[in-house]
Design a protein that fits this description.
Helix content is about 50%, strand content about 15%. By secondary structure, the protein is of the alpha/beta class. The chain has 2 domains: about 220 residues, Alpha-Beta Complex (Spore Coat Polysaccharide Biosynthesis Protein SpsA, Chain A); about 100 residues, no CATH class.
Length: about 350
């Protein structure tokens, strides 16, 4: 039997707004032998009907076990059906270029990677998304250095679940998504387990895949509440730092304008130079996030938004509960700083498949 080289697994829960565009970009892939499996995660909208209108295999997610995240369960369910030597987990809100799968496979083989993950090109619309998303992704780029993640000698690990290509033998060796079943940041945890098992990681930004993660302020609020405090060390300190950065830029501009109105040219010039210095440093950081010029211009207003979102996420996790797509998740972390340390450095028993075997 001629098995596909790659099994593309798309977990989908109430994704009628974007699944069609995702599948249109996936069914026309070039240069690789692959199959597509859409996992309907108990959707209450037209997700399954849309999936069935494409030449893909549609399966239902297994019954959600207690404590599991819905996405882990859907991804695990798809992996059990997959026949490929490689598994590509990609979200329903992604769009792929015609060579997206072949490019990822080629790079993974060239780097001898057990897991390759791309951070996609982010698409944004409207003021709120343009302001906040560049600030978030610039901070992610600073926190999860691809150089460190790709270095086998470094303990740093990261991945983006929107494009996560893992070799089947590596996936099975660590116990797959069953090993990270209770993790909210399952992509980062999976990458960490793969690296701790001795496999190489390859992680970087790429424009072979694009995504619009959130559509509007409400989705951003819920989604980043779930994730932000787990993504960054010392979230409250970081929130304060970014708020102070905004105040420094805005304060210097206000001071310069006031001094100029009072005829104090030298003081106004000093204020402008200080504001320009802070703003230049800010823009240099934002450029690492690969957003368009309009979004970079709006991003200054994203600084106080980021501080607010990050503080809310920290509070929610300390209270022990967050929600996403109609499901509530208990945060097992009394302190998110300790959780972040576990993500990037400390050994974790969750990566031992022998200690964490889960059967359905």
């Amino acid at each position: 039997m001629n098995y596909p080289e790659i099994s593309v697994i798309v977990p989908a829960r109430n994704e009628e707004a974007c699944l069609g565009e995702c599948l249109r970009s996936l069914v026309g892939q070039l240069g690789v032998n692959y199959e597509i499996i859409v996992v309907d995660d108990d959707s209450s909208d037209r997700t399954r009907a849309i999936a069935e209108s494409f030449p893909v295999r549609v399966v239902a997610a297994d019954r959600l076990p207690p404590g599991w995240s819905g996405k882990c369960n859907a991804a695990w369910s798809g992996a059990q059906q997959a026949k490929g030597k490689w598994l590509l987990f990609t979200d329903a809100d992604t769009k792929h270029t015609p060579h997206s799968i072949a490019a990822g496979l080629r790079e993974a083989k060239r780097c001898d990677a057990g897991l390759l993950s791309y951070s996609p090109r982010q698409e944004v619309s409207g003021f709120w998304e343009r302001a906040l998303m560049p600030v978030v992704f610039a901070q992610l780029a600073a926190t999860y250095s691809p150089k460190d993640v790709c270095d086998p000698q470094s303990s740093a690990a990261a991945a983006n679940g929107q494009y996560l290509l893992v070799r089947r033998d590596a996936y099975d060796a660590i116990g797959g998504h069953a090993t990270v079943a209770t993790a909210i940041l399952e992509d980062v945890e999976l990458a960490r387990c793969v690296k701790q098992a001795g496999y190489r990681l390859q992680f970087r930004w790429s424009d072979v895949v694009a995504t619009r993660m959130y559509r509007g302020f409400g989705q951003m609020w819920e989604g980043w509440t779930k994730n932000l405090a787990l993504l960054f060390p010392h979230p409250r300190k970081l929130a304060a730092t970014r708020m102070l950065e905004f105040c420094a830029i805005a304060g210097c501009l206000v001071l310069a304008a006031r001094k100029a109105s009072e005829g104090e040219v030298r003081a106004a010039a000093i204020g402008l130079m200080l504001a320009a210095g802070f703003w230049t440093a800010f823009l240099r950081r934002i450029q690492r996030a690969h957003f368009d010029a309009l979004s970079r211009a709006c991003a200054i207003f994203g600084l106080p938004m980021f501080a607010m979102f990050l503080l809310n996420s920290s509070i929610s996790h300390r209270r022990g509960s967050v929600s996403w797509k109609g499901r509530a998740y208990r945060s097992s972390q009394a302190g998110t700083d300790a959780a972040w340390k576990g993500i990037l450095s400390e050994p974790h028993s969750g990566c031992d498949p022998e200690k964490n075997s889960v059967t359905h």
